[in-house]
Amino acid sequence: MSMKKRFISILAVVTILATSSRLALAQTTDPVAVVQASIDALNRGDVEAGMVVFADDATLNTATGSSTGKEQIRRKVEADIAARVQVNASNFQVAGDQVTYTLVTTSDQFRSMGIDAIDGTATVTVQGGKIKMFTATPSPESRARIQ
Q1: What would the pLDDT profile of 6-28 be if each residue is shown by its tens digit?
Q2: Quick check: is 80 in a domain?
Q3: Is 2 part of a structural domain of the chain?
Q4: Residue 108 sits in which domain range?
Q5: How many domains does the chain have?
Q6: Contact residues for 132 (Cβ-Cβ < 8 A; gap 6+)
């Protein structure tokens, strides 16, 4: 097999795997898996994979404001990726369709303010395998540092 044909074959396999993993993600209803997929997508800078998990009418609430609907959320996600936001999530707890967890977030914006990271909690409502509501709340200490 020529080098060109081998490259095309590898590219085809990678494309199929990426597409099938997105389809599998779009079909999962496990709330923690949906939330973790959104965090993973943000951390690797993948806007499209991040948007797959949001409902069309989702609301995202953070310390910097609220975004409702996929277009507003897309702009927020794109801005976070541009600012190299990274989220370390832990202590996931599930109660019905609600997922809560603790988070530590870093970004270029925080670093430019002399802040290594902020910590806090997130509460996420997942319905039908999609994020319907996301609210991140900085800890009181972090809130004081970013104001």
Answers
A1: 434 443 344 344 433 444 444 57
A2: yes
A3: no
A4: 29-146
A5: 1
A6: 55, 57, 58, 59, 97, 125, 126
